[in-house]
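Consider the tokenized backbone below.
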């Protein structure tokens, strides 16, 4: 399986047995990291996986990559067919170590290979500084309805070299 690495952190392609690990990272990253930027009601509405089977189908429906430390999944990101980077989540214990940078590099390489000239994402308040640091431009602030809450985020895009 293709793998890129940075010191002790590697990136590999997701497979179906990774579904539970991605759910855990998703929930913990929101509850323990994004919770500094959103109120408790917004966090409760966001940090939910209603049906793990549906989650697994979403993950399998598009390329998804896992960051791995030793054998432990510590982050994941994906790329939809239209060039949307839909998910970028890093385990709370591995924040600020370049994990998302490594995942983004993988996503950008894949997007270029697929012929995309740009990628775009809806960046959370928490992730906006990361994406701006990586060359994304904020197009607009918006609110997106999530289970009765309307947490703000930002439509952003990056032109690929
Ligand atoms: C946003 C997130 C994915 C960043 O992951 P990370 O692995 O900590 O990011 P990296 O360590 O690769 O950071 C890369 C660069 O972005 C900067 N950066 C990351 N988060 C930042 C923040 N909150 N404020 C300022 N700069 C930030 C880093 O300082 C680093 O800069 P450098 O290249 O000058 O060293 C992570 O914080 C996260 O999981 N957040 C919670 C979930 C979330 O909101 N996901 C996005 C949904 S759209």
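A designed sequence for it:
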């Amino acid at each position: 399986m293709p793998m890129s690495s940075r010191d002790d952190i590697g990136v590999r392609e997701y497979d179906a047995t990774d579904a539970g690990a991605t759910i855990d990272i998703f929930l913990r990253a929101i509850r323990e990291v994004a919770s500094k930027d959103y109120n408790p009601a917004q966090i409760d509405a966001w940090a939910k996986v209603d049906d793990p089977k549906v989650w697994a189908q979403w993950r399998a429906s598009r390329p998804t990559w896992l960051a791995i430390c030793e054998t432990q999944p510590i982050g994941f990101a994906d790329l939809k067919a239209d060039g949307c980077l839909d998910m970028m989540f890093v385990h709370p214990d591995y924040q600020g170590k370049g994990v998302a940078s490594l995942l983004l590099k993988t996503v950008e390489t894949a997007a270029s290979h697929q012929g995309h000239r740009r990628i775009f994402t809806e960046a959370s308040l928490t992730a906006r500084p990361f994406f701006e640091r990586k060359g994304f431009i904020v197009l607009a602030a918006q609110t997106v309805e999530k289970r009765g809450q309307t947490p703000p985020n930002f439509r952003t895009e990056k032109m690929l070299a």
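The pocket of coenzyme A is lined by residues 29-30, 33-34, 88-90, 95-101, 123-124, 126-127, 129-130, 133 (CB under 6 Å).
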